[in-house]
Design brief:
Layout (H helix, E strand, L loop, with lengths): L7 H13 L7 E2 H14 L7 H19 L7 E2 L1 H13 L6 H13 L6 E2 L1 H11 L4 H11 L7 E2 H13 L15
Antiparallel strand pairs: 1-2, 3-4
Helix pairs in contact: 1-4, 2-3, 2-6, 3-4, 3-5, 5-8, 6-7
Length: 183
């Protein structure tokens, strides 16, 4: 008997949906993204006048509009299946917004408080635990896997590579596939 391997991308995107659906009503809508933005700003103590606050907000507004553009016309909230499909289409269509690069940069900017293009274990663990609600053991293991050069920090380049793997890799063991914990 042949078994079909799991759709790794779908598993990753369904996990993202579960995290994004803040009120657990089975839909993701703009208010869920606003809550994510609020978590970024609160967790990383980003002031409202800090350019990082404007960037994370602008990115997610554009991202949400792209998700809606790739969903059924007129939708203002997305079911899990609609969300997964919209993200797949949005990540492939870079004609208006490169979601993969944009999310990587906007997220990294929030974690990189001193602007040195490096993130340590503490900031990365805080991002996973408090923004994305990933368990601590996963956070440290994921950090170590993303730190490709073993210098104890994740560079912007290493993080962007992980974002690409998250959105495009079918390998469940690729470092970027583990970005939000084990599948």
């Amino acid at each position: 008997m042949t078994t079909t391997p799991p759709d790794v991308l779908r598993l990753k995107l369904e996990r993202a949906f579960d995290t994004m659906d803040a009120n657990e009503d089975g839909y993701v809508e703009w208010s869920d993204y606003q809550k994510l933005i609020d978590r970024f700003i609160s967790v990383f103590q980003i002031g409202q006048t800090d350019p990082r606050a404007a960037r994370i907000h602008a990115f997610y507004q554009m991202y949400w509009q792209e998700l809606l553009r790739h969903a059924h016309p007129g939708r203002q909230k997305l079911s899990k299946d609609e969300y997964v499909e919209a993200i797949r289409l949005t990540s492939m269509d870079t004609s208006r917004l490169n979601v993969v690069e944009g999310s990587g940069h906007a997220t990294f900017d929030c974690m990189d408080a001193d602007g040195d293009n490096m993130v340590g274990k503490e900031a990365f663990g805080t991002f996973l635990r408090k923004v994305w609600k990933v368990a601590q053991p996963d956070a440290i293991e994921v950090f170590d896997r993303l730190d490709l050069d073993g210098d104890g920090r994740i560079s912007r380049h290493e993080f962007l590579r992980a974002a690409n793997e998250y959105f495009y890799s079918y390998d469940p063991k690729a470092p970027g596939s583990l970005l939000f914990g084990h599948l």
